[in-house]
Amino acid sequence: MEALLGILSVSSLLLIGWYWGARRRALHRESLAQRESQLEHVLVSSSKHYLGSGALAPRLVTVELVWGLDRFQAFLAALVNLFGGEMESVSEVMARARREALVRLKADAHAAGYDALANLRMETADIGNDPQQRDLKVALIGSATAYRRHPAGL
Amino acid sequence: MCDTCCLMIVVNTETVAGYRVQRVLGLVQGNTVRAKNFGRDFLAGLKNIVGGELSEYTELLTESRQQATQRMLDEATRLGANAVINVRYSTSAVTAGAAELYAYGTAVLLVPES
């Protein structure tokens, strides 16, 4: 009886994760696409040297983001872990979390009157994952220097 | 974020457009180690079932970054700098459930390019 209850609770969490996770993913992709097209004019570069106009003193912009994988995706990743191969669900979440972080950086810069980002640095942060925890999450920290573009370009 | 940030130019590039480095004052740094609290952990655990942003942890990282940056800027102010260039951040997990955020950069004296 207890085993049955256990299986039921695990599978219902998987179901919730599968249904709500997919919905939330679709909504997030939609919102990302919308914000990305709004901020298209903000030029991003990972170059350390740039031609800023100097009209506005450059400023550091930063972003932090912790993103979780839903239970179902975490389950898929655990399956892949048994046989090896690409953990597609994890790759997808990491790529999407990076897009989100970049959009937030751009939005910050845009709100402060800048139109370009130089020296973009994005890395995963170590936030002390609990080894017993089954939940998968990815933490990102990013920084860039926001500046006003020089008419001559970057 | 604070008063000093508005007066001080903080960038992660080596040069600042429109300014020239007059004097290098040296390395400035700041760090903080923070632990997740139980309430936040519990909420984030629930959110993790359906995936998406775990804002409790995001906030924790944001607070850590602000604190570490503030400590770095305080040091720069003590040195008499008006800018910190080439700022870098790094993180490390000290123990399970606690993480360090470390900020470092070079304090300089900038003068506008004529």
Topology (SSEs and partners):
The complex is a heterodimer of chains A (154) and B (114).
Chain A: H1 2-38, E1 43-44, E2 59-68, H2 71-83, H3 88-111, E3 116-124, E4 137-147
Parallel strand pairs in A: 1-3
Antiparallel strand pairs in A: 2-4, 3-4
Helix pairs in contact in A: 1-2, 1-3
Chain B: H1 3-7, E1 9-10, E2 19-35, H2 38-50, E3 52-53, H3 55-79, E4 83-95, E5 98-112
Parallel strand pairs in B: 1-4
Antiparallel strand pairs in B: 2-5, 4-5
Question: Any overview of this molecule?
Answer:
The complex is a heterodimer of chains A (154) and B (114). With 154 residues, chain A is of the alpha+beta class. Chain A contains three helices and four strands. Chain A has a four-stranded mixed sheet with strand order 1-3-4-2, with helices on one face. The longest helix of chain A is centred in the first third of the chain and has 37 residues, at 2-38. Chain B is an alpha+beta fold and 114 residues long. Chain B has three helices and five strands. Chain B has a four-stranded mixed sheet. Chain B starts with a helix and ends with a strand. In chain B, 35% of the residues are buried. The interface between A and B is large, with 54 and 44 residues.
